[in-house]
Design goal:
mainly alpha; 56% helix; 140 residues; Multidrug-efflux Transporter Regulator, Chain: A, Domain 2
Length: 140
């Protein structure tokens, strides 16, 4: 089994096409087609159209979402629920804000999340003690 953490995750260039089949999207994202089908059930924004023959047809925005989901799950190590919340909190395209701001906000959130765990063990021990004291106060 290959180690996903050892591979650098870079976004591939998405070909300029209207629709992509599941195999193409899987190859672009570097994942198996069954993973894509599972993600469809977990992420409501990911919904390919079906062709007349029942084949899944992904649009460019679906491919971009797949790459973002992969980044959140494999690179940022979010749970599926955490990745779903991040994606749902992003403003939809066409909102009042320009497209660059959500990316900057997501980057800032990622930085803040990474900084949460940069303290020393003594810091966390003190934090645990303070939280336990607070819990005791609230239970009284």
């Amino acid at each position: 089994m290959e180690d996903l953490a050892s591979k650098p995750l870079i976004d591939p260039e998405i070909p300029n096409k209207l629709y992509f089949r599941i195999g193409e999207v899987a190859k672009l994202a570097g994942i198996k087609p069954y993973v894509l089908r599972f993600w469809e059930s977990e992420f409501t924004g990911l919904g390919p159209k079906k062709s007349g023959t029942g084949h899944r047809l992904y649009r460019r925005k679906d491919v971009e979402m797949v790459l973002e989901i992969k980044r959140l799950l494999y690179e940022k190590r979010f749970t599926i629920e955490g990745a779903r919340k991040i994606l749902e909190s992003k403003p939809k395209r066409g909102a009042a804000e320009p497209a660059a701001k959500p990316a900057a906000a997501a980057s800032a959130r990622s930085r803040q999340q990474g900084e949460l765990f940069s303290g020393s063990p003594a810091f966390y021990q003190e934090l645990r003690k303070e939280l336990a004291d607070l819990l005791t106060l609230l239970q009284d």
